[in-house]
Amino acid sequence: MEIDARGGRVRYRDLASGSEGWESFDTLLVATGALPVCPRVPGSDLDGIHGVCGLQAAVDLRARLDERNVRHAVVVGGGYIGLEMAEALLSRGIRVTLVDRGPEIMTTLDPEMAALLARELEARGAEVRRNEGVEGFEGRDGRVTAVVTAAGAIPCDVVVLGTGVRPNTALAGAAGIPLGVHGAISVDERMRTGVENIFAAGDCADSFHLITKQRVHIALGTVANRHGRVAGITIAGGDAVFPGVVGTAVTKICDLEVARTGLHEREATAAGFDPISTVIASTTHAPYYPGAMPISVKLVAERNGGRLLGGQIVGGTGSAKRIDVLATALYGGFTLPDLVNLDLSYAPPFSNVWDPVQVAARELLKKSTS
Amino acid sequence: MEIDARGGRVRYRDLASGSEGWESFDTLLVATGALPVCPRVPGSDLDGIHGVCGLQAAVDLRARLDERNVRHAVVVGGGYIGLEMAEALLSRGIRVTLVDRGPEIMTTLDPEMAALLARELEARGAEVRRNEGVEGFEGRDGRVTAVVTAAGAIPCDVVVLGTGVRPNTALAGAAGIPLGVHGAISVDERMRTGVENIFAAGDCADSFHLITKQRVHIALGTVANRHGRVAGITIAGGDAVFPGVVGTAVTKICDLEVARTGLHEREATAAGFDPISTVIASTTHAPYYPGAMPISVKLVAERNGGRLLGGQIVGGTGSAKRIDVLATALYGGFTLPDLVNLDLSYAPPFSNVWDPVQVAARELLKKSTS
Question: For a disulfide at A217, which of A166, A184, A241, B123, Cβ 3.0-4.6 Å?
């Protein structure tokens, strides 16, 4: 593949016939997605080391697990994919060791919220090892037998990598299309790249962060879909813009729902804000109604004026989707008094009279100065 | 009880000793709540006709049901209380007839959404009778035996009234405190009444509707709590305001979650808007993930410019709390393009890549003119 941006054409190869040729274009959309990041360490080509990128990778991993002699898996990386894979492996009765190079897993959360997830995994029998970067893999007969970290070798039958993705932009970069943050293609709010008539959308393109006002690369299906919608409408001559993201993400780890949006405390400080924060504990709905579960909500706001900067939620069934209220509030530039005054819904099966996000807003409001 | 507003004192009776006296005040908070509305028709004082206002009413009703000879109940009124009572009665194996004087139950929803609830109740075995106002009750030995409507007598062992509430403001009215909409005490955004140093909060007071810009009386715990918070802070010398409500409410009827916020279509027209609307069908989360349920979302917006006016949601587990996104968007004055661009959360256990409220916003956007 090759993009001839100036000539307005693309060199392609027909995967069925193998023949190659050039196809000219009036408008080009680059939607090359992302590629998994794999640790470049000795032994990384051993059999039994599985990424989880694309359907075939999942089929391959499941086939390996179905061989029934897998007793112990090491998951490398404590992000969304790593944690979801840890859950899936645990649910198959496989012993799981999760290895993360950082001091805490799930760095999209602040440490005290991420610790709730680690505790949940440990309660399910997983071992969570922090501050252990992978230095290599050991094998026998071409098959992985251990993961090596600074703390020693961790014997295992299979390794699952959840070590992130990077924008797949070699093709675009070679064509002279300007790349930016993390090597993602720089786009404007109509998904136009720096080259006329060439658009980009999805995991290969960057986004504008509505809170930091910086370009960011967020490889999520929600963002990619919005990119695609705006690119399509624009290319077809319509009118649509994608103003940007606030960094919402959600997942489920065993019985815990996990959600975040905006900036966590360290991100807020790094972005130049003077943040205040609070963590509150409540229940997912009225405690006297059956099925109420614990929920923890952390809010981060600007000290002066109390503008919301971000939120994190960890809790039982019914917790995660509450992040959408905070994502909506961030889009609107709402302050803590705004959050307190929102007319959110209440009935005993669904909430307390004050929704947990509003309990947190009330708490944090006491720390803000107007 | 008597309020001497000019004299700054209240006449009280000590319920324990029976003694009466006057208590002077610097500041007075009227929080007299609401009273149930009962049909004033022949036979309404018969035994076996139960309201559901206050704990004792529930205790009394349950005691009656525990007598085990209750086979058939008539519920009068198809609002939140009536429908929740119908569910409770059905779950005890009691035959239920729901009688509503209007052409459709649950008038806080548009008819096509309310019809989904009626269908759910009917699927559970309830009979839903519309356009039948209660004209009287028949009894034997002082005990109710039938509810009489224009269509005839409906034999029954017990009657449950869900016929609404009205502000309990006779005391305030007699004291010369100005009353407004539906007889509720008129308050400003700091919960001050028209009489100096007298405040009101809760079901006895009115609220400002952020969309219609009219005063409204909404007797819900969420609103009452916000009233109380602002009144308390203000009386204590602090600074807080209650900007108003958007009319959010939520309930669960059997296996259906029901939610609404803002204006439904008829309310929007009545308020002078030129509304457009759409109803979409989706699933509560990714259909390939276990447990996905149908969800219907109706959105109402201004034809010109697409500002959101209201939303209604009926669906399975995980549906109702999505109304909070719309309530938050209403507070912010968001348009349909804003809704489409919100960075809402997605993971297969929680949502589709486009949350159902955004699917509805995309659909309705096609009908708006900018």
Answer: A184
